[in-house]
Amino acid sequence: MRQLHILIAAALLAPPALAQEATEDAVATGGNALVGLIVTLIIGAIVGWLASVIMKGGGSGLVMDIILGIGGALVAGWLFPLIGVSFGAGLIPSIIAAVIGAIILILVVRLLRGAAR
Hints:
This protein has 117 residues and is mostly helical.
């Protein structure tokens, strides 16, 4: 959304050469966003698959693994700083935290399913 505001402002206020440059930057950034989304989905699938294997011995299917992986990363990003736990910076510590978050998510879902029966 911010990129759209910048693009509109550049088109309205800047000379044509600068507006063209802003448009090219927005297009290039959009391509990076797509790559970022694809990487997020792939890492989410790997994290979810790892958590599923740890918890029950097999994957949960591609879509569910992606949901578990991304959800686990969100749980880890919210819960661990709240309780003062840090795994460090970088890709590997983030993946470890996301796997633990996905395992917590699996445990919560199992508890809720058990309570609903």
